[in-house]
Write a structure and sequence with these properties.
It is built from 10 helices and 13 strands. The chain is α/β, with parallel strands linked by helices and 332 residues long. Strand 8, helix 5 and strand 9 form a beta-alpha-beta unit.
Length: 332
């Protein structure tokens, strides 16, 4: 098992994270919820009729990673491709309200990625409508994204790439992120999608979940020995420096220079795992930017993930919550 962090060191790192600024690049999404009351079935088809009550919005995808960075006290600039539509304006405003600086590149050929969920008063989902394009950006739009990466990397202490296969992360965009990170000698972290695994060459850390690691390596991951072999194969395949594999209730597996071992799950209770990976990579990146070692960053990320999964929906973790959890762990 990976060694613990000394209490004073953990608290110092958690506080130092607030002084770091991160660049997040990826597929930002707008989650729209239309909520209402169901009292009857439609006479036109065997579906419920939802009487409109209210609607609300959340930011998702790469925007939720940036939201986690801001919630932990860090600064976050978010580069993403959007449409030139009302949803883009709504997403940008929601980011600003969360403390995230949007640096969006508008593409008139696509809609802003939006997930519209129709739910009942008891939060039961009736239907979902997706507005999206999965076509990779190209031409002038891709050039503008690369220019934005080069511009904003100058102020960053770490770069996070959040890939959802919605078009923002192309091979050239990823190459620009890696080159910018290497030029500044700052870490580049990637939350991957396996069809793009060859794009991530040169990244500092790639953070697959165990399902993604299984697909990339054609190996089963059930035990620590399985995780060890899969992480090694994944690192070779992705040509990255380190791998942090998340394994749900089995914790994490970290493979890096001079380190190779497991972390047990920190969650005391699990309410919802949605967005836990966003919390992990945001905390990991902030910790590294604050001067943490790979093991220390993984420990902090594991603690933050344990807090996030105890909440419903895509949750964020505050500095106060993380500090309390670290204090509790030190006295356990």
């Amino acid at each position: 098992m990976l060694p613990p962090i000394a209490r004073d060191r953990a608290l110092a790192l958690a506080r130092a994270m607030a002084g770091s600024r991160l660049l997040v690049i990826g597929d930002a999404m707008l989650d729209k919820f239309i909520a209402g009351r169901v009292t009857r079935i439609s006479p036109e088809a065997p579906v419920p009729v939802v009487t409109f009550g209210h609607e609300s919005y959340r930011i998702g995808g790469a925007a939720n990673v940036a939201n986690n960075v801001a919630a932990l006290g860090g600064g976050a600039t978010l580069i993403a491709v959007t449409g030139q539509d009302d949803a883009a304006a709504t997403l940008a405003q929601a980011c600003r309200e969360a403390g995230v600086s949007p640096a969006f590149i508008g593409d008139p050929a696509r809609p802003t990625t939006t997930k519209v969920r129709i739910v009942t008063e008891r939060n039961q989902q009736v239907a979902r409508v997706d507005y999206e394009s999965e076509v990779d950006v190209a031409g002038d739009v891709e050039r503008r994204i690369i220019a934005a990466v080069q511009q904003h990397a100058a102020d960053a202490s770490a770069i996070v790439v959040s890939d959802y296969l919605k078009g923002t992360i192309t091979e050239r965009v990823m190459q620009a992120a890696v080159e910018a990170g290497h030029a500044k000698k700052i870490p580049i972290l990637v939350d991957p999608k396996i069809p793009h695994i060859d794009y991530y060459r040169g990244a500092t850390i790639v953070t697959p979940n165990h399902h993604e690691a299984e697909i990339a390596t054609n190996m089963r991951v059930r035990t620590d020995d399985d995780a060890r072999l899969a992480a090694r194969a994944f690192r070779e395949r992705a040509a990255c420096h380190a791998v942090l594999m998340t394994r749900g209730d089995q914790g994490m597996w970290l493979l890096g220079e001079g380190v190779e071992d497991s972390l047990p799950a920190a969650a005391r209770e699990v309410a919802d795992v949605t967005g836990a990976g966003d919390t992990v990579i945001a905390t990991m990146a902030l910790a590294l930017a604050a001067g943490a070692t790979l093991v220390e960053a993984a420990r902090l990320a594991n603690e933050a993930a344990g807090l996030a999964v105890a909440k419903f929906g895509p949750a964020v973790v505050s500095p106060a919550e993380l500090l309390r959890a670290l204090e509790a762990s030190a006295h356990a």
